[in-house]
Amino acid sequence: MTNADALQGVEIAWVGLGRMGSAMASRLLASGVDLAVWNRTPERADALVARGARRLRSLGEAGACDVVFSMVLDDAALDSLHDGESGLFGAAHPGAGSARVWIDGSTVSPAASERAARAAAEAGAAFVAAPISGNPAVVEAGQAIFAISGDDAGLEVAEAIGLAIGRAVHRVGSRTEASVIKLCVNALLSVTMQSLAEVAVLADRAGVSRALLMEFLNDSAIGSPFTRYKTAPVVTLDFPPAFTPEGQRKDVRLALELARALEVPLPVLATTEVAYSSLVSGGLGEGKDFAALILEVARDAGHQLRPEELR
Ligand SMILES: NC(=O)c1ccc[n+]([C@@H]2O[C@H](COP(=O)([O-])OP(=O)(O)OC[C@H]3O[C@@H](n4cnc5c(N)ncnc54)[C@H](OP(=O)(O)O)[C@@H]3O)[C@@H](O)[C@H]2O)c1
């Protein structure tokens, strides 16, 4: 069976149209599926509705579609989707709770995924955790990847949706393994951003161009898609937000909470949490991408960075 077959005649309710949700739902709509959309702030659905998506007026209406795909900020937001009468499985809307499958792509704790899975099970629906790796630009380019884990009955449709949006889907288990993998990957990414900011400030203080540093670094063994994405902000000091410092700190904290619960010391990540907290509380990261961490590192060093041209 192809992806297109798996999604044939299936109405998908998309819940959560922030930066990531909008980019993902946009690709899904472009692939020709039958899409309905809901966002807490309704205006954020306007662009997709103008392109043919059906507007949903409530979470209950979303819960009455065949499949729900949610993409919201954090644990509290995910909890709110299945909370009470006005949630996905509440009785506030006729037909609410008849969804067969609920797939959640948000980066949340395994505990929040488990709570959502329980709520789905009580309503007779399968649940799949499907966190995504890639920022909105990566999604738009069709290069995002998913880790999926959950109930067998939901994996096929989750995989088909993942492949309609991105380039690969990794099946990693039958419970909330995907959430654990996503937190591990984001923990490494957060630490990498801090280290990148530190060496860029060091090179700059030594009188070496950050553009030259990044050009060499990206060509070396430590160069990666991530260091290439973050080259522009590190060099130009322009930080259009792909992911906010608050969001990145949220993921660091989720990984640290999991580590604490499992008695795994993560001293490097603990230090990184302090760095992101300073970036948030000091205001240097406001309205910016989390790559603005370089401004915090420079401030700690008492060093003035200047924008450079990209090479
Ligand atoms: N941005 C990235 O590069 C990236 C990459 C991979 C994964 N992620 C993950 O993707 C998820 C979304 O990130 P984002 O960058 O799209 O964030 P965002 O732009 O801030 O969007 C957050 C979304 O969550 C909704 N939301 C927040 N609190 C809610 C609540 N209590 N009830 C219902 N809806 C609520 C927002 O609705 P409103 O519009 O009403 O505020 C919005 O639709 C996060 O879990 C993030 O960790 C992000």
From TrEMBL:
GO molecular function, one term: oxidoreductase activity
InterPro entries named among the record's database cross-references: 6-PGluconate_DH-like_C_sf (IPR008927), 6PGD_dom2 (IPR013328), 6PGDH_NADP-bd (IPR006115), HIBADH-like_NADP-bd (IPR029154), HIBADH-related (IPR015815), HIBADH-related_NP60_sf (IPR051265), NAD(P)-bd_dom_sf (IPR036291)
Recorded coiled-coil stretches: none
Keywords for this protein: NAD, Oxidoreductase
Transmembrane segments: none
Domain 3-hydroxyisobutyrate dehydrogenase-like NAD-binding as annotated: residue spans: 178-294
Domain of life: Bacteria
Residues at the catalytic site: K182
EC number(s) stated in the UniProt entry for this protein: 1.1.-.-
All residue ranges annotated as the 6-phosphogluconate dehydrogenase NADP-binding domain in the record: 11-170
Family designation: Belongs to the HIBADH-related family.
Annotated protein name in UniProt: NAD(P)-dependent oxidoreductase
Native organism: Herbiconiux sp. A18JL235
